[in-house]
Amino acid sequence: MIGKILEVETTEKDVLEMRENGIPEEEIPEIGSKRRYIRARHITKRSDQKIKVEMFLDADILDFRKSRSDESYQTQINSELRKLIVKEKEKEVVEIKRKILNDNDFLRELKDKPKAA
């Protein structure tokens, strides 16, 4: 399946934007009209896409994952990899915070910035 079918209703805002963008009047749909589109793969969320990858796993890893639960081993492996990504991003945030808190120029600039009313 390429993607989900999206139904889009034309709003007044859509019509105004089309006019502002120079679309000819005869090509502008009526307000409230509905159009259907097949959602293309390239505009789906990346985490919703499934990409076939051929790779070799150690037998004991695969056996362990297959025996763990009713979930497919692929789902389990994806879940574990996502956890690693989250941990890595958390480490990056901590590192950025550390750099900011040790940046005296930034802290001075922050201190001198007038408070918003």
Description:
By secondary structure, the protein is mainly α. It has 2 domains: 1-51, no CATH class; 53-117, no CATH class. The chain is 49% helix and 9% strand. The chain has 4 helices and 2 strands. A two-stranded antiparallel ribbon has the order 1-2.
Query: SSE string, helix = H, strand = E?
Result: EHEHHH
Count of DSSP H/I helices: 4
**Overall mean pLDDT:** 85
Radius of gyration: 25 Å
Briefly say what this structure is.
Helices cover 49% and strands 9% of the residues. With 117 residues, the protein is mainly alpha-helical. The longest helix has 29 residues, at 73-101.
Walk me through the topology.
Blueprint: E1 5-9, H1 12-20, E2 34-38, H2 59-68, H3 73-101, H4 104-112
Antiparallel strand pairs: 1-2
Tag the structure with descriptive keywords:
two-stranded antiparallel ribbon, 4 helices, 117 residues, 2 strands, 49% helix
